[in-house]
């Protein structure tokens, strides 16, 4: 059942083994009692996976950066087609609604049209874009953007990056350089809910896109959190800038076990 709802096989197997171990030796009589005991143990196991090990309150972290007189920096990473620019724009809209001054950094210097796409979102959101065109060093652009933000009173810098696959070594090296050189506060991985396995390394949080299109196949939230050890911070639930929500772990568990 879990695998059918997009939970990775390894994760599902270990979860079931954990439930079995937890119930071993317990005296339970009757079919319904056994069924309820298994369901409760499974719910507890799923909640443990989905509950962050530490608080990831972005607004609180932004406040800390403000007190340090510097911008809070978020780098968005993910493969092409996952909805990275749209998701970044949703986060921008949310931050603006919190009265924060946001700068977008166009560091996808590889894909044709990426800078223009980000500029289109920026115009709608009425926020500036820091960009230097194409075929430039993305890490240096990000560094210059952060410096510019610090000099001009921006609270947050949202960094758009080139979509990449893990087997594309040059692009992965470029991403590693960007992260290592700029030491962002948050590396946010974007992943489609329907294909939530094989996440990138060295991420701080996960944002699942297209969360409104997959009915009850929400196991990606469990798989991504289990494999990375990092929490799903936000989920995209539509095409407009307001379609952004925090993950409700209890609802995910209900969908998985219904």
Automatic annotation (TrEMBL):
Domain named SRP54-type proteins GTP-binding: residues: 231-244
Subcellular location: Endomembrane system; Plastid, Chloroplast
Gene Ontology CC: chloroplast; endoplasmic reticulum membrane
Annotated transmembrane regions: none
GO MF annotation, one: GTPase activity
Any one biological process term the GO annotation gives: SRP-dependent cotranslational protein targeting to membrane
Gene3D superfamilies referenced in this protein's UniProt entry, alphabetically: P-loop containing nucleotide triphosphate hydrolases (3.40.50.300), Signal recognition particle SRP54, nucleotide-binding domain (1.20.120.140)
Pfam family, one: SRP54
Bilayer topology term: Peripheral membrane protein
Keywords assigned by UniProt, alphabetized: GTP-binding, Membrane, Nucleotide-binding, Receptor
Keyword Transmembrane helix recorded: no
Known partners and oligomeric status: Heterodimer of an alpha and a beta chain.
Stated family: Belongs to the GTP-binding SRP family.
PANTHER family: SIGNAL RECOGNITION PARTICLE RECEPTOR SUBUNIT ALPHA
Protein name, per record: Signal recognition particle receptor subunit alpha homolog
Lineage: Eukaryota, Cryptophyceae, Pyrenomonadales, Geminigeraceae, Guillardia
């Amino acid at each position: 059942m879990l695998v059918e709802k997009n939970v990775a096989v390894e994760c599902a197997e270990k979860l079931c083994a954990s439930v079995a171990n937890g119930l071993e030796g317990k005296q339970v009589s009757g079919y319904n009692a056994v069924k309820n005991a298994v369901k409760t143990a499974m719910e507890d196991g799923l909640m443990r996976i989905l509950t962050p090990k530490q608080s990831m309150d972005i607004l609180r972290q932004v406040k800390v950066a403000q007190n340090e007189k510097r911008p809070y920096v978020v780098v968005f990473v993910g493969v092409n087609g996952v909805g990275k620019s749209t998701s970044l724009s949703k986060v921008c809209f949310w931050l603006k609604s919190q009265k924060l001054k946001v700068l977008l950094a166009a560091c996808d210097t590889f894909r044709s049209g990426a800078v223009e796409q980000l500029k289109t979102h920026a115009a709608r959101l009425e926020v500036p874009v820091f960009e230097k065109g194409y075929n430039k060093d993305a890490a240096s652009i990000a560094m210059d953007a952060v410096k510019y933000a610090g000099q001009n009173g921006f609270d947050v810098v949202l960094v758009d990056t080139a979509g990449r696959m893990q087997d594309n070594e040059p692009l992965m090296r470029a991403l590693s350089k960007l992260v290592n050189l700029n030491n962002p506060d948050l590396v946010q991985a974007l992943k489609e809910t329907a294909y939530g396995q094989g996440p990138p390394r060295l991420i701080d949080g996960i944002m699942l896109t297209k969360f409104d299109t997959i009915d009850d196949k929400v196991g990606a939230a469990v798989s991504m959190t289990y494999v990375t050890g990092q929490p799903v911070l936000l989920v995209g639930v539509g095409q407009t800038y307001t379609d952004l929500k925090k993950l409700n772990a209890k609802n995910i568990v209900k969908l998985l076990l219904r």
